[in-house]
Design brief:
The chain has 151 residues and is mainly α. It has 5 helices and no strands.
């Protein structure tokens, strides 16, 4: 049996514990600040000018919960459902980073929408741009995970 085969047998994702890192803390803080900014803007516009639509508020709640869930799941790699089976620690670290970056993107997307008064996601250009950025991010991290398997 090759040494690489033995190392793959020893890797158990259930035993992996993700600790706090400076990068992780910064990305989490950015996400939280963006979400707080979103909700301050959204609730003041909704309360004082009626500028926010109820449908937008519902979408913002769902996206906010998704961003927070991504941050929480980043600490538990065994619950990450990637398109590729994670087989080494490098892949796990890349996957954790991808979840945190996606959380920042989700929070930034709804902040931009809150600033525009909740109308941005109704416009095809902005909606497709936001979706394209998220898809490109997922593809980049997917390729990095595949590449990390070979290393």
């Amino acid at each position: 049996m090759k040494q690489s085969d033995q190392s793959q047998e020893k890797f158990d994702i259930k035993k992996i514990k993700v600790g706090r890192t400076i990068e992780g803390t910064i990305l989490e803080a950015i996400t939280v600040m963006l979400l707080i900014g979103t909700w301050v803007i959204a609730l003041t516009k909704h309360q004082f000018s009626g500028g926010m639509q109820n449908e937008w508020l519902q979408a913002a709640i769902i996206i906010s919960i998704a961003a927070i869930a991504l941050l929480v799941v980043a600490y538990f790699p065994r619950y990450m459902k990637n398109a590729h089976q994670l087989s080494n620690i490098r892949q796990v670290l890349i996957s954790v980073r991808s979840f945190r970056v996606l959380a920042v993107e989700f929070a930034l997307m709804i902040l931009c929408n809150a600033i525009s008064g909740g109308t941005m996601l109704g416009q095809p250009f902005w909606t497709s741009t936001a979706v394209a950025v998220i898809i490109i991010t997922c593809l980049i991290f997917y390729l990095l995970i595949i590449r990390a398997k070979k290393e």
